[in-house]
Amino acid sequence: MIVAATAAALSGCTPSGPEYVAVCADTHTHTRTIDRDCRQNGSGSFQWYYLNADRNNAPRVGSRVTGGSFATPKAKPGGPAPTISRGGSVAPNGKVTRGGFGSSSSGKTSGS
């Protein structure tokens, strides 16, 4: 654990992952849909729904989304932009997954 924390500190990364995860949801029914709906139709009734990443679970596809917002999170005054992981950030079983050392929200490792 100390080695991982030291490596993260030296690389400038934090092991905590993104501040927010985004799942695709229908704006009319507030029901989670597959991420492809937001990638292909990123407007209209399908939008990204932002959840605080410190949650342990996110709604499954077909479940109602609650506890978040359709509004894109903004930076705090004078602070950096919040980190957001869109699409593929939540496993089908509803568990919030976090990238390991050297990974990004795209699922690719750094340097690839």
TrEMBL record:
Residues 71-83, 103-112 have a biased composition (Low complexity). Residues 60-112 are annotated as: Disordered. This is Lipoprotein. It comes from Saccharopolyspora griseoalba.
